Backbone:
């Protein structure tokens, strides 16, 4: 619907800043990278004002959105879930971008919004639909705008190499986690200068070997999803600080919140950013093992 005016408020999720699964169920086979499809289906499409919303693949946990007209105006997408959560994204080009349906089964509304001035946006397209996911893992086993990868992405190839002898999800998590915290350095300058709308570019991060919490979480999410491990990239708070981390799923443990690290025979809460910047010191590990220090707000 054109001409509807509104303010975009609290778009805080934007300030932070390869898959061995055929049915959505996790695999315990050795390294094999297979990327789950996120292509537009074309059977259910809403077009209006240059915006295209393809909601043909809701059972697979995602929608495709693009804006086809050239513009120097900022374009936003809002995905409003059945739980009342509003996920806000920025559209960057005229090709489809993938937005996950992470609020579970139920009725979603997807809106495309065009900036008019300041924080004022006009709605150019909107569609509502009921989503029934084929299983709970669908949004967390695929690429999306925040975890954007394919078979040739460098960290995906690295994950395949790392996980050659890993026979289950937790072994893969351990391999990937150790590589990330030993390889990446925290980019304090980037943390000070990052602007709203920032999205990690995984190949650039792989080359520079440094980033902010969003980058750490996105890299690990791509690496593990590419190896058949469902991963939630979580945005929330650690104390008063806005932060990103990951939750992982295994057949043995179910969903493990805050991601994990291996200490003796116990899998405990793990934060790849803090573990890396804090050199996994006792003080840091004590902090990240206290779930009270983490409050999730969104997952992607």
Residues:
């Amino acid at each position: 619907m054109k001409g509807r005016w509104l303010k975009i408020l609290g778009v805080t999720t934007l300030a932070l800043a390869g898959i061995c699964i055929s049915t959505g169920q996790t695999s315990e086979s050795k390294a094999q990278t297979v990327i789950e499809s996120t292509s537009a289906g074309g059977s259910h499409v809403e077009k209006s004002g240059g915006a295209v919303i393809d909601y043909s693949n809701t059972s697979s946990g995602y929608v495709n959105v693009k804006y086809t007209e050239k513009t120097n105006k900022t374009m936003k997408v809002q995905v409003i879930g059945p739980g009342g959560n509003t996920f806000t994204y920025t559209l960057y080009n005229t090709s489809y971008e993938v937005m996950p349906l992470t609020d579970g089964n139920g009725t979603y509304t997807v809106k495309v919004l065009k900036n008019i001035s300041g924080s004022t946006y006009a709605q150019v397209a909107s569609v509502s639909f009921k989503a029934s996911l084929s299983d709970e893992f669908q949004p967390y086993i695929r690429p999306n705008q925040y975890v954007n990868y394919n078979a040739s992405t460098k960290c995906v190839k690295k994950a395949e190499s790392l996980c050659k002898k890993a026979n289950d999800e937790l072994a893969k998590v351990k391999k990937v986690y150790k590589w990330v915290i030993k390889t990446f350095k925290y980019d304090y300058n980037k943390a000070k200068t990052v602007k709203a709308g920032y999205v990690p570019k995984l190949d650039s991060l792989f080359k520079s070997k440094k980033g902010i919490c969003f980058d750490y979480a996105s890299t690990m999410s791509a690496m593990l999803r590419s190896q058949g491990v469902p991963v939630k990239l979580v945005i929330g708070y650690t104390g008063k600080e806005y932060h990103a981390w990951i939750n992982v799923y295994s057949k043995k443990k179910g969903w493990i919140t805050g991601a994990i690290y291996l200490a003796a025979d116990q899998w405990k809460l793990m934060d790849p950013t803090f573990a890396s910047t804090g050199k996994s010191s006792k003080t840091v590990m004590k902090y990240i093992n206290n779930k009270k220090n983490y409050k999730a707000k969104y997952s992607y």
Q: What stands out?
A: The chain has seven helices and 17 strands. Confidence is low (pLDDT under 50) at residues 1-29, 260-267. Helices lie at 154-162, 169-183, 188-193, 202-208, 213-225, 272-277, 282-288. The longest strand covers residues 106-117.
